[in-house]
Amino acid sequence: MGGAIRSVQALHDDQGPWRVGVDVGGRERQFVLRSLTPRIDAALIATGAAALEVAEVYGVRAPRLVAKDLDRCVTLETVASGNTNWPRTLPVARLRAAGAALARVHAIRLEPSPHLPSRTRPIAVDDFARDRRLGNLPTTPLLRQADELIQSLPQPQGETVFVHGDVWPGNLTSTCTLIDWKTAGVGNPGVDLGELRKQIAITYGATPQHIVDAWESASGRPATDIPYWDAVAALNTPTTLYNPEATARRDAFLRAALSQL
């Protein structure tokens, strides 16, 4: 695609990814450049690229991969439409749209592959429950009880589908375009549903049914084992979140899940 770079803007503090303006035929076009950073390694770059390729094949609303060089650990993708600003009050219509968008992702049946591996929890690069088990992080009676219960239960079985792996408001634009696919993979739909439900509970202090209802309507099948996946998502968080209210909301979400297991 050759062209002079006109502008560069870091999208994560002073680190990548970067939004770059490139001169294409005398006009500036915007792209997102991803490469190695202290947070992002080669495997995550490769997973992000593989996920965008799958998304394009199946028409999932996501950025499109423009170029990749995995030997140099760099990719270039289009800028997603919409914005990631969510309102202060619970946006019911947006939650329903998010559930329907996830149903389209989960309609894609896949088997694990090197760049899209099996995912048994959201944000698979983290395993806060294991870290607490090993004594690397402090714990609480609630988190210990929840972890022991989840460890004792068989993992839900079923067909494996395409999962985004990190569904939170910051990765879901106002046009229901999913961005930042670096922890994508193959797994149970609950990996994504539980994570988004947890994030909404922490952000808004409520766990509405709209996400699951819209997912079921769009997919034409019931969402199963939701309490299990809610608990898994809640456990994959730091012991103490960014403020006391967020921690309390996470704990309330986790207690609700445990009460249904």
UniProtKB/TrEMBL annotation:
<feature type="domain" description="Aminoglycoside phosphotransferase">
    <location>
        <begin position="25"/>
        <end position="207"/>
    </location>
</feature>
<dbReference type="Pfam" id="PF01636">
    <property type="entry name" value="APH"/>
</dbReference>
<protein>
    <recommendedName>
        <fullName>Aminoglycoside phosphotransferase domain-containing protein</fullName>
    </recommendedName>
</protein>
<dbReference type="InterPro" id="IPR011009">
    <property type="entry name" value="Kinase-like_dom_sf"/>
</dbReference>
<dbReference type="InterPro" id="IPR002575">
    <property type="entry name" value="Aminoglycoside_PTrfase"/>
</dbReference>
